Amino acid sequence: MSLTELLASSPRLFIGTCFVLGLAIGSFLNVVIHRLPLMLERQWREQCLELASNPGQATHAPDTEPIRFNLMVPRSACPFCKAPIKAWQNVPVVSWLALKGRCAQCRHPIAARYPLVELLTGVLSASVAWRFGFGQAALAGLLVTWFLVALTFIDIDHQLLPDDLTLPLLWLGLAAALWNDSSSLGVPTDLRSGVIGAIAGYVSLWSVYHLFRLITGKEGMGHGDFKLFSALGAWLGWQMLIPIILIAAVSGAIVGIVVLSARGQQRSTPIAFGPFLAVAGWLVMMFGPALVSSYLGLFK
Length: 300
Fold this sequence. Notes:
By secondary structure, the protein is an all-alpha fold. 67% of the residues lie in helices and 0% in strands.
């Protein structure tokens, strides 16, 4: 029996495999969450320097090559003593527990968020496997989940939803819809629903953004929110956009009021909306199709 057949025939094994895979992906997502904003900042600085240079003036090559910095290079290291992290120290969750949350070299505390992101990704991945079972829907759900985890924490840290993540998520959703021959509600959706969802998702928040700016003279959200909502529409279809935005708006309002009140901050303090869109999108992906189908069935 092949591995594919074994996973398909054993739901528990499939769920467990997705949990372990999710832990490993969560470890990589920690790298993405930390490094991608820094990579973008470096690119922006380089572009600003190029624009600031006089046109036509010869530019001299730097004496030293710029240090490579991407998702793979350099190796992960302790941010305090710069000691490289060995392979056995990078096992998701387990290494953090074994090291008691401290660097093996300098014993400086390691943030608990690293294992939490890994554990969260593992649990969400296992939940997707449980919900959809072995097949195309589970693969689509896992991809969406991993993108949403990365986008959520980047937006929390930097109030930024990078095009490097939102646009691939959008195009992957449309590509998945192209190859999906089913017209029923679910993930991935069919091509017609995905295209309409992508367009409606972007245009709706784009319109709200400009209307809010016209009325108040302020920007109510970032352009990344349009693209994330569009990507969710591409994966889940236009039918899921209203449930997503309702859940995101209500939860965002409640959490925003609680957080601002607890911190003693003013209502004008910006709060990232992307995490609420991501959470709402994931919940609707998991449970929305059944609810929407039941609702639409009342009118048949």
